[in-house]
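Please describe what follows:
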Amino acid sequence: MERMLSRRRLLAGTGTALAAALAGCSGLTPFVGKRQESSRSVGVEGVSALSAVVDVGDVSVRSADRDDVRVDVVKQSSSVNADLSKLEFRVERPSDRVRLRGEWTGDSGLSGQPSLDLDVVVPRSLAVTRVRTDVGDVDVEDVRGDVRARTSTGDVTLRSVSGTARAETSTGDVVVGDVDGFDGAESSTGDVDVEIPSIDGDTTVETSTGDVSAAIGAGMDADVRASTNTGDVAVGNLALDDASVGETSASGTLGGGGPLLRFETRTGDVRLETLE
């Protein structure tokens, strides 16, 4: 299924390109403020899983052929008065797990809260369980584990997960694709585009303002419900038994029926199709 380009990333990319062009013409540095970069290697002996949580900043996690975890950390603030030493990066080891933690311990004041971005590369054998930020994007690709990814303001993208995936945001887009199992996706303002090969229990895909697009495994047993208040519902090539399809709602049974698989938006379209 064709993926939708994030509106936020498009706008961010346009802004970055413009800033770079202006810098090239004027000779000025495009970034004004403070920025610190560092890298760290984390051993994983006796460790079975990893999580990454920051207050403000982007978090990306992927796997590679390596024996340790590599973490690239970028701390930055648009204010030259920000104290980046109050922006802490810690590695915690509760039990047999590694938790990467980015936390602001200072006073935001007039300078605002700086951001801490994490770019994490894990061994292929290490499970990833939780990736979260309050403000920023979450991008997880080519990992194993039952991944729960969440942000309040930003996009969430989960691809190539050998496990079950769940993605949530309040303001932003959600994309989930090429996963072993699916445990739901949610946004308040943004588009949701997902692939659902299998579910284990009642599952919801929803947004308040935005489109919902889903490709559903052909061999699934589920009761399907889809609805919108302002928009259209289309079931495409999805083979629904006992189907009832209207302009703003649809229902039916996949296979022998089973858990409820619900798709909902208040303002937007719902598009369902069979996962190829």
Q: What stands out?
A: The first helix runs from residue 7 to 26. Residues 1-26 have pLDDT under 50 and may be disordered.
